[in-house]
Amino acid sequence: MNKTMYKTMNRTLYLLLICLLGAIAAVSGAQDELGTLKIAALEALITAPPSRALPIVQRVLKSDDREDIKARALFVLSQIDLPEAHATLVAMAQNSTGALQIEAIRMIGVSGAPVAMASLAEIYTAGSEDVRGAVLKAYLIADDSQAVYRIAAAATDPQALERALHMLGAMGAVEEVRALGARVEMSETLAQAYAMTGDIESLRKMAFDAAKPEAQVFAIRGLGLTSAPAANAALLSIYREQQSDVVRHAALEGLMISGYDQGVLALYRETQDIAAKRELLQLLVMMDSDAVWDEIDRALDERP
Amino acid sequence: MSFFRLLLGLVVVLLVSCAALAGRSESGLDESLQEGWNAWRVTSNGAHRESCCYRWNMGKRTPKTCDLDAPLTAVSTTQDAASERTEIQVYARIESGRASRILMLAPQCPAQAASGINDLGLIAADSSIVWLQTYVVSRGDVAEQALGAIAGHSGGVGELILVAEDQRLPMVMRERALFWMAQSNSDDAFDYVAMLLSRRETGARGLY
């Protein structure tokens, strides 16, 4: 092959490559445009009469269109308050796979339709970990703490119970978490759930129960997480009254988590123990408390 | 959707588009318009939900006179089935020869303006659409209001389809055309939306 032929071939290949890239760009541009229009059309259907919108949305869900477009169709479906719409959502949640199934489950939560919500228990039982997580989130969206409680109460797998407890905490379901608290031994998860629901009474009970030192530590941290005045008062009491170094240290951690520097300062001023004073002063510094500078000034003034 | 139905849908869109294009000329409406508020009636698409001003109290509504001069005229569209009304009333405020506000109401809904309203009576829906369409294409402040008014006109959906398909227009305008199409509540609009949603990605192109 001579040099000229080689050059010509090279140039031809180069041109072909440019044409190919141009064609790809044009096709992907058209796809983006059509996708945007389709999503706008679906969103427009939200304000259309439900009986007109439903068959169109159902057709999109039956098609082999892109997943993001079908996901938007599922959202529109969740906004249609018709039994057929709820039934379609349930069918999608039961029969789809992957991300679309997860989205259908989530949209059942968004719709909050009782019939569709009732189907979630069965989907949870038969589902994978991802599906189960999605069902819990759907209950969270629909604010159905009773349904999450039923799942937690029936759970035989500790991980499933932990996840349900977390969800109940996030939902602020005080009564449900308390009811489970009497039955489970998961002190860390339980303390977190109590903290999330702001249940200081249950955390106090746990924090003062010296028979379970490990649970005490988790509960004390939980008290700190709430940052509530009653929790701060409880943390001060624990530090003053408890004998265990581990528990007292946990109380300081709780005060730090809570950001209650005035409480730490009060402890600093009342203690006569030099080592404890040092620890409390260090804590105030770590908390970036302005009070620490007042104390340093005072200490300097008192120097002979 | 069957291939036949898809083909039929495309033919409908093309026919509607051609009809609208053919009608694209001067509306003749400008000569009749005066500075301030103007109003005219047109044949409606027959399915548009009733737009009126209401006073709301504890979820109950009572019709009230629309104050066109109010900065925000709260117009509500009823969710009831399409009324028997076959006309809609278009209101346009003209300032320095240009529309500064466009509003569509049901003809039986009373409206008032401090400077009075120049009532043009019943005019051809096509003329009204052509006039409104200029404000859509100019992409000015009242483009959205013009789209909303077009939706209620007889044959207005055809114009909205043209806007939705017009690749020269900004995407946001095309999206709004789709929104108003769904508001029009007409069979043509839902046929088009269904057709758009069933359109294939490969080789997909707008009408232009």
Low-confidence stretches of chain B: 18-25, 203-208
Identify low-pLDDT runs of chain A. Answer: none
Number of E-type strands of chain B: 9
Order of helices and strands of chain A: HHHHHHHHHHHHHHHHHH
- Form type of chain B: globular
**Global morphology of chain A:** extended
Q: Total number of helical segments of chain B?
A: 6
Assembly type of the chains comes to heterodimer
Structural class of chain A: mainly alpha
- Approximately what portion of the residues of chain B adopt beta-strand conformation? 15-25%
CATH class of the domain at 41-142 in chain A: Mainly Alpha
Helix content of chain A: over 70%
Into how many domains do the coordinates of chain B divide? 1
Q: Biggest sheet of chain B, in brief?
A: 4 strands, mixed
Q: What percent of residues of chain A are in strands?
A: under 5%
Instruction: Name the helicity range of chain B.
Output: 25-40%
- The helix-strand sequence of chain B is HEEEEEEEEEHHHHH
From the N-terminal CA to the C-terminal CA of chain A, the straight-line distance is 100 Å
CATH second-level architecture of the domain at 41-142 in chain A = Alpha Horseshoe
